[in-house]
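Protein modeling request. Please complete all fields; requests missing the sequence field cannot be processed.
Requester role: graduate student
Desired output: 3D structure, token encoding
Chains: 1
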Amino acid sequence: MQKILLLALIAIGVLFQSQLLRGHGGIIDDNKIRMQIEKQKQVNVQLKERNAMLEMKIAGLKGSADSLEARSRNELNLVKPGEVLVLLPGSDLNQKKN
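Delivered output (98 residues):
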């Protein structure tokens, strides 16, 4: 009788141990989720850097009509062959006068 009880307790211990390791929310799942979180944090850092660069570009385009025209003409290939587009500081027509 004692041997059967001992075997039953060992079986229950093994069952709990396997649930702790491989069960839903167990140690293995926890490690996988932690690795996914670290990867996503790295991706988020890269995306934040890209967003900051885009915000700087947008701020530059909003600040000057000349820079907006230069960029749009360059991206749309509206610069004639041999034409040089020159932007002079302070030449913006839409600058606010104090």
